[in-house]
Amino acid sequence: MTLFSPRVMLCTFSLFILTACGATAPTRPISDTERDALAAAADGQFDSAMRVARMYQAWNDPRALDWYARAAATTPRTHHTTSAEERLGTILERGRLDSSDEPQKPEAVVLKPSPRKAFRWYQSAAYHGSPYAMHDLEKWYTRQGDLAGALRWRLRSAVYQRELYKLDALRTATSGSAKAGSPIAIALSSNAAIARIQRQAARGDAEAQVDLGALHEAGIGVVESKAEALRWYQRSGEQGNVYGQYFSGLILGRGGKGMEKDVDAAAAWFARANAQEFYLAQESYWRNAIAPPFFIFE
Q1: In the listed set 70, 105, 129, which residue is the last one of a domain according to the structure?
Q2: What is the pLDDT of residues 52-93, one digit of tens each?
Q3: Which of 219, 243, 232, 228 is nearest to 170 (CA)?
Q4: CA 16 to each of CA 13, 129, 173, 202, 293: distance values in angstroms, whole numbers, following the listed order
Q5: Which whole-number Å values give the CA distances from 25 to 28, 108, 110, 123, in the listed order?
Q6: How many folded domains does the chain comprise?
Q7: I need a labelling partner for 264 at 20 to 30 A (CA). Which of 4, 96, 108, 109 fits?
Q8: pTM (2 decimals)?
Q9: Residue 152 counted as domain residue
């Protein structure tokens, strides 16, 4: 099932975001620039909300957070709206509105860093299709010392970007890997981390099923098999997991290594992911994602 009702979550979160950060808006006379930007934002469009958000951020005004949340809640879901979610994640994790690493000036508004709230925005962006948020989550989990979480998002990013060939270090680090075409082992992997994913997937955990599918597609810790990867992606997708649906579409649309290409079947899976506001599953995006790359490393 989906993790969020995205629009409801974002709209609700925006009502509390300033209080949660422990910041208050500075008091000053409203300028013509501010008045015009706020008036334009009454149209409810993404560009208008982002204009206000960036204006307030440039002024070191914490109301930028509320306006980024408003921009993130606009529909239809696109890479633009996820960029607002990612910006919120970065601000909340750093605890500052500027992008500098220098000590903040005494007059700067100080926000309370909140890695957990940052995580919520990174995750929201990732479940709306942002490849950048996949990378953000990998780094977030790494900073938290959660290697299983970091592995999950490294794999998902690599599947999307066709970068499974770059994961040789993981193949070497895991025991039990086997070449494509080898029989699928029934027993659990001898690698504890992989075995944990296998157990969770077998119990019906939709997220772990995506993880196991990606491991099979990459041939990390388990036999490399696109057919087995598709089986786990589809099991996850049937439960409503958007990554299970999207990756089912990708693997069917791309084909290769014993997997027959089936664009019609892929389109049906992409449609299910798109219905969950996963913007990469829009036809203009997925057509490009399944097109043969100039260089094929898989």
Answers
A1: 129
A2: 999 999 999 999 999 999 999 999 999 999 999 999 999 999
A3: 219
A4: 6, 25, 44, 39, 45
A5: 9, 12, 11, 27
A6: 2
A7: 4
A8: 0.86
A9: no
